[in-house]
Amino acid sequence: MNFHVMTLFPEMIENGLGESIIGRAAKAGYISYRAVNMRDYTVEKHGKVDDYPYGGGAGMLIQPQPVYDCYQDITKDMKTKPRTIYLTPQGKRFDQKMAKEFAKEEELVFLCGHYEGIDERVLEEIVTDYVSIGDYVLTGGELPVMVMIDAIARLVPGVLNNETSAETESFHNDLLEYPQYTRPPVWREKEVPQVLLSGNHQNIVKWRLEQSVKRTEVRRPDLYAKYQKKQSIVKRLSKKKRLYIHMMELLSRGLGEVLYERGMDIVLFEPESELYMVCAESLESAKYLVDKYLNSAGLVLTTSEVVVQALEEKKGMHICHKVWQYVYTLKEPLPVKHKDIRRLTMEHFAYVTEHYDMDDEEYVRNRIEKGQMFGAFVEDRLVGFVGVHAEGSCGLLYVDESCRGMGIGQSLENYIINYVKSLGFTPYGQVKEGNVASIKLQEKNGLYMAEEPLYWVGYE
Ligand code: 6GU
Question: What are phi and psi of 431, to 5 degrees?
Fold first, then answer.
């Protein structure tokens, strides 16, 4: 990912970003940034870039010519017009969601204003996004651009070396992070909470969630209200937990958003695979939801026959897969006989795409980069893998033909269940018709099947 900053104070950017994690990530080649001095592009004598505003008023404005020529130079080798962000207190408020959105881009251009602003005509010509970092006025866009680059760059794979941190941090699930402690165990007569020294991972996960909830309620009532709304939906869905586990886990893991909810008429959206999850109480409400919320939907997961019917009638969609969901309900971790199972990296990308029966390579890349794929190794050779899908279900299972019948598949399945459980989530998966018997056999292990199927409805 490449950041290009148009500014009159390039040293400020270079100095601000050169240190610490972002500086290190740039040296390692995960990102690059450069500050380009717009003054270098002016055609006026003495490097002048500003002039008085027409119509009068305080201060000076940056003229269009140096801005435009600088922009042309930065973008001359780009195949498409990049997102170009003008930093201004009049912009849309920057937040974590926007950071995630920008992190998907390959090139980003930032334009820093100074003085009283920039001639409107060049803004109209080049700017795609007007962004502010908060409701206060700063003297220029340089500090805001550094704030934005820091927040965006840390979402680029490889910049943080801790794979899971982005999935469990503040705002991920509308909750603030829990308090943390390190040595010494007693400091100024204050003790570290006992549970953290207990070694009981289940209790630690539970305590941390409680702390997050309490802290959010006190410090961020606005976020807490959002969290509570989600929880109320989760509670409604929990009346039929095995049937609605996909919707419950999407919400409680913070992987999706609520588009509609009223009683048991609910529409959720998962942005990574552009997946909709819907339930409806009657054909009438199903038709309403399809008309209002599923216009651009290509793939819908539902357990409601009325939703299937509405999608067929209104959109010409049909059932692509009929699956049964299973949920792991016990407290204890499952036994994993095969010992050498490790998190996969992009080094293993080719193996996974070659053997996984799906042609979406970008999706596989995303799963690996998010740290959600694990592989079984025999004598250091990768022989199988398993993972967590973008919407939260366990899957992506494969075992090399040469190694089948050795219990490696079972080990991978149990491993991924234990992994999801260790994050404080409820493990679940989906099996196709033919496999139901094998899961049924596993009830003694704590895997329970839903009593009704789930439909994947689409166009294929
Ligand atoms: Cl992006 N620019 C300026 N000058 N002031 C700000 C801002 C941006 N965001 C908040 N205040």
Answer: -125, 150
